[in-house]
Design a protein that fits this description.
Oligomer: single chain
Strand order of the largest sheet: 2-8-7-6-5-3-4
Structural class: alpha/beta
Strand content: 15-25%
Number of helices: 15
CATH topology of one domain: Aspartate Aminotransferase, domain 2
Radius of gyration: 24 Å
CATH superfamily of one domain: Type I PLP-dependent aspartate aminotransferase-like (Major domain)
Number of strands: 21
Distance between the termini: 46 Å
CATH class of one domain: Alpha Beta
Length: 541
């Protein structure tokens, strides 16, 4: 790879890699260039005709691929890069075109008021919590929430309490502590789980608290009956959405919606002035508005085609022998009880992670890392993320029949090539293991993979909290070998990425179960942030 970012990005854009990851425009749909949208809208029949005649995996790996997925959608982008000149309004005091565009977005989603964020949903969540909760207040949150929630708690010196991940929702809502200023939930989750927003909204409001929903992965919700409804229309007070994750807007773009009259919008304005850059990118704002205009004018056609593609690919992926698909086939018409899941998330799980299989005559121990690397290296399919026993493909209205067909064909070929032997124990030299690419050899002890990233966190008891988080971040600290950290108070986060969720929060004590979980994740090749050369930052007591 090049050591020049522009060159490396250009090389990737020209490669045959298909992006089953964000951003949602998939490098082919640029709403600022109507011709690219027309091409995607017209491409379904053409893709289907081509795929019926040839193997979709055979002709996508030339040296200089000129297919639609390799085209650069950002041509001429520098011509749009301006500052707050006459006639273009000011994001920090919108009175003209930007106010018009944000009002248009609010109308589209059904919000009381909508703000643009060019610092992503991270900024929107920082603003939402800061505006909704007084300094020194209390928030009730999901343990696996995005780090921006914890950062807001640090900046505002907030007390934290946690939603029990093992409780059913009906029970969990009854456990909101008295004195809570805001409840913060994530819906959909990274893997597509959707909360009962109305249930949480009613429970929060009965306690005198506001409901803030991190809907970063759900900007597309509510635009077709195949998908769950958006939290904006279900009783939440503030909702953050990333327009770049599941809609065709550029990376770093997001919206914050005030969905009720319980929030003082002047406070939201005040905190946007603090957290958002004073030099907002007009290119990014234009990509938000272009996506909004696209939904206003063509959402029926775009989502109808998207749903047909999802139904087809989900049917194929749910028929595999050695893998399962979260949510199953999910036909176009399904019951209300299935609306607790976003069908746009393709979570492909290894049925027997850590057990011996034969793959093309070789012993392998499939898990999420193995499948992720196999799809990336052999089939040029870049997944969004891997976990101990699954890979996640993120999809959007910009995905094509050709892209879905490539994924389904790849998984079918892998599935046919696998045979479960069921053996466990020491892997032989030459066996392909967790975190290994398809051709590597490792000798390592075979262990059954944990069920999911969330699964490990659910099995682990919450570490004992000895200091408020904001205090633990400020006191003197030192680096301690991870294996010797039991009983020590964390002075920094240790984070599993993705999905960017903490395994331990500053002020909590390390214990041996947690240390073993961190070591297990690292052995499997997952990225752990906050471990420096096998050392962690601890409070000096």
């Amino acid at each position: 790879m090049s050591n020049n970012l522009e060159t490396q990005l250009s090389e990737y854009a020209k490669s045959p890699a298909y992006p089953f990851h964000m951003p949602g425009h998939k490098r082919i749909m640029n709403p600022m260039e109507p011709s690219s949208v027309t091409t995607v809208l017209a491409g379904a029949a053409e893709d289907s005709a081509d795929s019926s005649a040839t193997d979709p995996l055979e002709n996508h790996f030339p040296e200089n691929d000129e297919s639609s997925s390799a085209k650069d959608p950002a041509s001429g982008i520098y011509a749009l890069d301006i500052t707050e000149i006459d006639g273009f309004d000011n994001l920090h005091d919108p009175q003209e075109i930007l106010k018009t565009e944000m009002d248009r977005a609010a109308n589209l989603w059904g919000a009381r008021k909508t703000w643009f964020s060019v610092n992503g949903s991270t900024c929107a969540i920082l603003v939402a919590i800061s505006a909704a909760v007084p300094k020194g207040g209390r928030i009730h949150i999901e343990r696996g929430c995005h780090m921006s929630v914890y950062h807001a708690a640090y900046l505002r010196e907030l007390s934290l309490s946690y939603i029990d991940p093992n409780s059913e929702e009906a029970q969990a809502v009854s456990e909101i502590p008295d004195g809570t200023d805001a409840v913060v939930i994530t819906s959909p989750s990274y893997e597509g789980a959707v909360r009962d927003i109305q249930l949480w909204a009613n429970a929060a409001h009965e306690k005198g608290a506001l409901l803030i929903v991190d809907e970063a992965h759900g900007a597309h919700l509510g635009f077709h009956p195949y998908f769950p409804e958006s939290a904006v229309r279900l009783g939440a007070d503030l909702v953050a959405q990333s327009t770049h994750k599941t809609l065709p807007a550029m990376t770093q773009t997001a919206l914050l919606h005030a969905a009720s009259d319980r929030i003082d919008t002047r406070k939201v304005d005040f905190f946007f002035d603090i957290y958002e850059t004073s030099s907002p990118s007009y290119v990014l704002m234009a990509s938000i508005t272009a996506a909004v205009h696209l939904l206003e004018n063509q959402r029926q056609k775009l989502f109808d085609d998207y749903v047909k593609r999802l139904v087809k690919v989900r049917s194929r992926l749910s028929s595999l022998t050695h893998f399962s698909l979260d949510g199953g086939s999910m036909p176009e018409a399904f019951g209300e009880d299935q609306k607790r899941f976003d069908p746009g998330k393709l979570v492909i799980r290894v049925k027997y992670p850590g057990k011996c299989h034969l793959y093309k005559g070789r012993e392998v121990y499939p898990d999420g890392s193995w499948l992720y690397e196999l799809l990336r290296l052999e089939y040029h399919l870049q997944m969004e993320m891997r976990a101990p026993d699954y890979v996640l493909a993120m999809t959007s209205i910009a995905d094509t029949d050709e892209g879905f067909d490539r994924l389904a064909c790849a998984m079918e070929k892998i599935d046919r090539a696998l045979t479960l032997t069921g053996d466990e124990g020491t892997r032989a030299e030459g066996a392909v293991g967790a975190g290994s690419s398809a051709g590597s050899a490792k000798k390592m002890q075979c262990r059954k993979a944990p069920e999911t990233n969330e699964g490990i966190k659910k099995e682990l008891a919450l570490p004992r909290c000895s200091l408020p988080m904001f205090k633990a971040c400020e006191v003197k600290s030192e680096l301690v070998p991870l294996r010797q950290a039991a009983g020590r108070i964390a002075a920094d986060f240790v984070i599993l990425y993705p999905p960017d969720a903490p395994l331990i929060v500053p002020g909590e004590e390390f214990n041996m179960d947690l240390i073993q979980a961190i070591l297990s994740y690292r052995e499997r090749g997952f990225q752990i942030i906050g471990v420096d050369d096998n050392r962690v930052l601890c409070v000096i007591t």
